[in-house]
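User: Second chain of the day. Same drill as before.
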Amino acid sequence: MPGDFRCFVAVPVPADVAAAIEDALRGLRAEISGPRWIAPEMLHLTILFLGSIDEEAAPAIGRVLARETAAERPMEIELGAPGWFDAGRAGRVAWIGLRSGGLELDSFAHDLTTVLAREQLLPEGSEPRGTPHLTIARRASAELSGRLGEALEPARPLRWTARQAVLYRSRAGAWGHRYEPIAEGTFAG
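Assistant: Same format as last time:
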């Protein structure tokens, strides 16, 4: 049923990159109270937010993801400047954008959206969207957003080769957001 099966497509963040981000942000985590920090094991590079989908469509979306990633080559990713966006009731979201790899991921997301729409796997009227980004915290203050770049500087460069994309289900609760992998595809072209 649409409404409770919220999904997105993302590139997993390797453990060494997640650890470097965690180490770089340790001081901010201790100094700034209030944000809901994303746990290192939950970090991912969102490339396409699908929103609420029909749960029965998830396996077919997974098959399309596997087929489309197989036609693409692995992509070189380097994290870039931080930013933030307003997420309504959820507050400000602090994220890291891309220095490289963004154009390739944008193109892949556009092509994936086109195929999903053509195969009628998206809810009517939905508009999948995304700008590749790595969410660091929800309910982020202006102070956090302003200090994020400086805190990450010692960890740079933050780069890796993206070899897969994953369809995740997002579940929100009192504990924060949890992301469950539903399907994955390997960039193999």
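The chain has a mean pLDDT of 89.

User: Great, on to the next one.
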